[in-house]
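Possible race condition, two jobs.
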Amino acid sequence: MSEQQKERSWLWILLPVFFFLPGGIISYFALKDSDQRLSKISLYLGAAVTMGMIPIVIISTIMMAGMFFVDSMPFDMYMDESMYDMGYNMEQDMADDKMSEMEP
């Protein structure tokens, strides 16, 4: 470490962790004159966290969009044969129970 550079607190690493690439850029410019090593680490960390978050954002967006389109699709699309049988039997059983209650 040269005389010009002084070591800064490692808490600067939290800026890119919470604010991704913009936080890394801010901490880079804030630290580049005083601690070049920490400034480069914070810039690279901001870029890495941003790249790591991109797939998570894309996947969660697709999943959220899928939740909204489920209601617009026909319900029969999600049922297989066993569900049809189960539903029919339940409806038939309910109808039979009502009929048996009505008989004296």
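Job #2 (started ~2 s after job #1):
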Amino acid sequence: MTPRLLDDRGAVAAEFAVALPAVVVVLALGVGLLGTATATVRLQHAVTEAARLLSRGDADALDGLSASGGKASVEHRDGLVCVAATAPVRAVLPLPAVTARACALDGGR
């Protein structure tokens, strides 16, 4: 018979309780990173499309950016139409906004 002090019952539960917060933090950071990457790709696609449409003379090209909560600016110079935009990242963690910029040849001028 073993003495009561050398009993290992409950050790796994205690180790799990200590490790669980670290696992939750790592998972939250992973989800936040994935959300940021997704938002960046979506914003880059929208900015590229807006620059192409603006270069063709479409006045409603920035509607897609403003619908997603992003803010965009347009610049015409040296035969190019450049669109720069920022958009918030929708995630549980407070993450900084993502930015994107794209240019297209100005065919309308």
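The longest helix spans residues 11-55.
Logs attached separately.
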